Amino acid sequence: MGGHRILLALACLAAISCSTAPKKSDTVNDVKDLAAEATSSGNAYYRQGRYDLALRFFSLALDYNTSVDNEVGIIQSYNSIGQVYMAGGMGELAEEIFLKALTLSKDAGEEMVFVSSKNLGELYLQKGEPERALAVFSGVAALPQKALKPWQAAILYHNLGTTHKALGDLAIALEILRKSLAINLENKLFEEAAANYYMLASVYSKQGDYGNAMINAELALSYDKKIENSLGIAKDLYALGLISARKGAADAAYEYFQRSYLVYTTLSMTKEMKKALVELIPIAEGLGKAREVEAFRKDLADLEKK
């Protein structure tokens, strides 16, 4: 999603805030409940890749939390908004708000420090700055072990594994990612397990072990389907297309990229749609699918105008 859609969502937020602002008769707990409901809606839209709507509800939650000085809620809302900015490619805004959340977290307990640090480190990874990410995640690892719940330890291991992959330490990455996966499977954290399988597939692919890469990417797809994670499904299909192409399996690559493109289309994710088409077109040409090539080129040209 482009930055202009996020700005449009902010403009639309004013109307929503006015109609749902807490009444004077609302208790603090009432307002906190409203904030929790707005956050839940935002999370649902975020998982669907509908970032403009997610931003509206996360910003509404921030308004509610701020109105009753709910410090933990404010930090959570900042982190949620920062994740939308990060997903929308607005790195500077995301970093600014994650740093604000981290500053507030210092007086709000280790769990808030963990969440804010996690998001900041993930942003640095997205920006291609693994050294900065490793410094942030190492700071989290230095927290007392009893301060980390199992799901938090799993996320930390996943992020450390992803960072070591970015640094080229592939054997270390595999070892740490497997630790994360074991915790997530034991605790039935299927969304997180899907992310583990996806990253394991990426590391195996980077090693040239396409057999294990396919197995793990297929497992990621299976778990994302189990929890109906549309964005995860699209990413898994795209990854399976890449792995199939590297194996020389053009027919399979064509099918996976086409399915990925269709899911991204339902999510209105222009950037990702273009990426899928860029992969699809030469594969379709090689398979002699002239009619499909013509249609894909038209779709790509239309997307470039947006």
What does this entry look like structurally?
The protein is mainly alpha-helical and 306 residues long. Mean pLDDT is 90; it is low at 1-19. The protein is built from 15 helices and no strands. Among the domains are: 1-148, Tetratricopeptide repeat domain (Serine Threonine Protein Phosphatase 5, Tetratricopeptide repeat), CATH 1.25.40; 245-306, no CATH class. It has helices at 3-20, 28-47, 51-67, 71-87, 91-105, 110-126, 130-141, 150-166, 170-186, 190-207, 210-226, 230-247, 250-266, 270-286, 290-304.
Helix proportion of residues, in percent?
over 70%
Task: Kindly report the CATH topology of the domain at 1-148.
Answer: Serine Threonine Protein Phosphatase 5, Tetratricopeptide repeat
**So what's the CATH class of the domain at 1-148?**
Mainly Alpha
Task: Summarize the biggest pleated sheet.
Answer: none
Q: What would CATH call the architecture of the domain at 1-148?
A: Alpha Horseshoe
Can you write the helix and strand succession as a string?
A: HHHHHHHHHHHHHHH
Overall geometry? globular
Q: CA-to-CA gap between the ends? A: 11 Å
Query: What Rg is obtained from the alpha carbons, in whole angstroms?
Result: 21 Å
Q: List unreliable stretches of 5+ residues.
A: 1-19
Quick one: how many beta strands?
A: 0
Determine the mean pLDDT: 90
Determine the structural class based on helices, strands and strand pairing.
Answer: mainly alpha
Count of helical stretches: 15
- In CATH terms, the superfamily of the domain at 1-148 is Tetratricopeptide repeat domain
**Strand content of the residues, in percent?**
under 5%
